[in-house]
């Protein structure tokens, strides 16, 4: 059984995760790719440079992501609270949104994170 | 329920500890990594230089960053092609038909450039300073003036300056051609990166990247993974491909997008083909991996000039194993060794032609 204290700690931890992710992995630069985490499959990388809709299968059902003008957002989800949709557009490195009930989360990657240096 | 009596006694506390433990591990784990990577940026050699040192020794990292800064600033001062410098002094002497005094590093750079120019069939030709000047690339901020006239270019080409015109005798250099005007824009950055990396190695640095405006030498690794390098897409945003640096490698790319001007709607870039006197055509970028940054730098310059038709011959004569060339249509040409290491990062992947040098 979870006590009330447990619930508070879990809630805090879940709330803090995006912030921590952003602090330690994030950057304020424009992202170029979204990494999609989904249940039972390895994460998928999708480029943000082409406008499209991507539907991924979660544990409750399909969630749809929209990619437009280098940004990405959840547009449909079988979850109840639709927190993922309320997260709105993500475009900068480290920005993060999740649909915990459907076990789908997305994080925007910027080059600075994926590469130690860019050759040009 | 009672299969795990120790846990079932106080499930709440166990769960709290687990969650907190995961969060703390994430925080401290990342924090630790960040502490080992020391980064610094400076402006030198006309570009933004990024220094990354991976070490547990903060003091060593700071000394290494100071050393790289010093080396690159020295190189910029010594070989600046248009602001008054020891190099412009040498150029004045050559133009006057007099012997010029050279320091040991400049002498070594001249010798190295002679070997590389010869190996590249003079497609890497650091004696065409006059041509680069008339194109307006000997300024920090080019005024909006037309490109040079054809007869001006023809006259400069007829002078046929070459590295082979230079002769070194002790600490003096003389030229049999007064029209030689040294501009080490296609090699000085690489040479300076080599000097800097040699120095920080002697200090004890094992893991570092010295990235001089996108041209870099990487030694060691980023902790327990290799250094990851992205190669810029010459036509479009982001990265065209990525690769991992192994042990000690220099990765240099010459691109027609780096410096250019637009006059009456036409784009003119800064890499001048010494055969035509005009900005090179055919290739938009050339990438070379080599153990030595000076060679990688000169080779990337020679290859972008060589273009899709001649790159293999140049790669062969310069003894290059890893070459990637992108042409104006986006087709990628690679040596087999390079093809094994390149991972494309664009969708759809480009058309690729793999060929032995």
A few lines on this structure:
Chain A has 120 residues and is an alpha+beta fold.
Can you tag this structure with a few keywords?
heterodimer, A: 120 residues, alpha+beta, mini-chromosome maintenance (MCM) complex, domain 2, 3 helices, globular, B: 357 residues, T-fold, 2 domains, nine-stranded mixed β-sheet, three-stranded antiparallel β-sheet, disordered N terminus
Task: Itemize the secondary structure elements and their pairings.
The complex is a heterodimer of chains A (120) and B (357).
Chain A (H helix, E strand, L loop, with lengths): L3 H22 L7 E6 L2 E7 L4 E6 L4 E7 L2 E6 L6 H4 L9 E4 L4 E6 L1 H4 L2 E3 L1
Chain B lengths: L4 H5 L1 H26 E8 L2 E8 L3 H22 L6 H10 L4 E2 L2 H16 L9 H6 L15 H9 L7 E4 L2 E4 L12 H16 L4 E5 L2 E5 L8 E5 L6 E6 L3 E8 L4 E4 L2 E4 L13 E8 L2 H25 L4 E6 L4 E3 L1 H6 L1 E2 L7 E3 L3
Parallel strand pairs in B: 15-17
Antiparallel strand pairs in B: 1-2, 2-6, 3-5, 4-5, 6-7, 7-10, 8-9, 9-16, 10-13, 11-12, 13-14, 14-15
Q: Can you walk me through this structure?
A:
The complex is a heterodimer of chains A (120) and B (357). Chain A has helices spanning 4-25, 83-86, 111-114; strands at residues 33-38, 41-47, 52-57, 62-68, 71-76, 96-99, 104-109, 117-119. By secondary structure, chain A is an alpha+beta fold. Chain A has a domain at 33-109: mini-chromosome maintenance (MCM) complex, domain 2. Chain B has 357 residues and is an alpha+beta fold. Chain B has 2 domains: 13-77 and 206-354, ApbE-like domains (T-fold), CATH 3.10.520.10; 79-175, ApbE-like superfamily (T-fold). Chain B has helices at residues 5-9, 11-36, 58-79, 86-95, 104-119, 129-134, 150-158, 188-203, 293-317, 336-341; strands at residues 37-44, 47-54, 100-101, 166-169, 172-175, 208-212, 215-219, 228-232, 239-244, 248-255, 260-263, 266-269, 283-290, 322-327, 332-334, 343-344, 352-354. In chain B, the strands form 4 sheets. Chain B has a 9-stranded mixed sheet. In chain B, strands 3-5-4 form a 3-stranded antiparallel sheet. In chain B, strands 8-9-16 form a 3-stranded antiparallel sheet. In chain B, strand 4 (166-169) and strand 5 form a beta hairpin. In chain B, helix 3 runs antiparallel to helix 8, helix 5 packs parallel to helix 9 (293-317) and helix 8 (188-203) packs across helix 9. Chain B is globular and about 55 Å long. Chain B starts with a helix and ends with a strand. Chains A and B meet through helix 1 and strand 8 of A and helix 2, strand 7, strand 8 and strand 10 of B. Strand 8 (117-119) of chain A pairs parallel with strand 8 (228-232) of chain B, so a sheet runs across the interface.
């Amino acid at each position: 059984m979870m006590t009330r204290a447990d619930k508070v700690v879990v809630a805090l931890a879940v709330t803090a995760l995006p912030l921590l992710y952003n602090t330690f992995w994030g950057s304020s630069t424009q992202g170029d790719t979204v990494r999609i985490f989904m249940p039972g499959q390895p994460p998928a990388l999708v480029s943000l440079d082409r406008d499209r809709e991507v539907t991924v299968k979660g544990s409750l059902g399909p969630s749809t992501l929209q990619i437009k003008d280098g940004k990405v957002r959840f547009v449909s989800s079988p979850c109840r609270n639709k927190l993922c949709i309320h997260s709105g557009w993500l475009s900068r490195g480290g920005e993060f949104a999740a649909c915990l009930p459907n076990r789908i989360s997305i994080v925007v990657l910027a080059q600075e994170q994926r590469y130690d240096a860019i050759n040009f | 329920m009672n299969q795990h009596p120790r846990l079932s006694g106080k499930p709440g506390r166990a769960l709290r500890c687990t969650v907190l433990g995961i969060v703390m591990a994430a925080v401290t784990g990342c924090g630790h990594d960040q502490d080992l990577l020391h980064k610094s940026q400076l402006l030198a050699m006309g570009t933004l230089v990024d220094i990354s040192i991976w070490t547990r020794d903060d003091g060593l990292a700071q000394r290494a960053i100071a050393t790289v800064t010093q080396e690159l600033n020295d190189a910029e001062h010594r070989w600046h092609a248009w602001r008054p410098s020891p190099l412009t002094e040498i150029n004045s002497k050559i133009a006057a038909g007099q012997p010029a005094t050279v320091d040991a590093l400049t002498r070594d750079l001249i010798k190295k450039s002679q070997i590389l120019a010869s190996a590249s069939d003079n497609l890497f030709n650091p004696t065409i300073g006059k041509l680069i000047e008339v194109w307006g690339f000997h300024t920090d901020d080019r005024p909006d003036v037309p490109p040079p006239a054809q007869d001006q270019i023809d006259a400069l080409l007829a002078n046929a300056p070459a590295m082979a015109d230079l002769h070194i005798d002790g600490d003096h250099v003389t030229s049999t051609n007064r029209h030689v005007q040294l501009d080490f824009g296609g090699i000085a950055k690489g040479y300076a990166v080599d000097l800097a990396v040699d120095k920080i190695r002697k200090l004890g640095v094992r893991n570092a990247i010295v990235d001089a405006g996108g041209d870099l030498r990487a030694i060691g690794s980023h902790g327990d993974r290799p250094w990851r390098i992205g190669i810029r897409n010459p036509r479009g945003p982001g990265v065209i491909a990525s690769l991992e640096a192994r042990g000690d490698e220099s990765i240099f790319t010459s691109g027609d997008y780096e410096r250019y001007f637009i006059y009456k709607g036409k784009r003119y870039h800064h890499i001048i083909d010494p055969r035509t006197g005009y900005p090179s055509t055919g290739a938009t970028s050339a990438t070379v991996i080599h153990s030595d940054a000076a060679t990688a730098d000169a080779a990337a310059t020679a290859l972008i000039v060589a273009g899709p038709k001649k790159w293999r011959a140049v790669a062969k004569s310069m003894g290059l194993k890893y070459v990637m060339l992108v042409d104006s249509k986006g087709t990628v040409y690679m040596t087999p060794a390079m093809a094994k290491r390149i991972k494309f990062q664009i969708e759809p992947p480009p058309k690729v032609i793999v060929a032995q040098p």
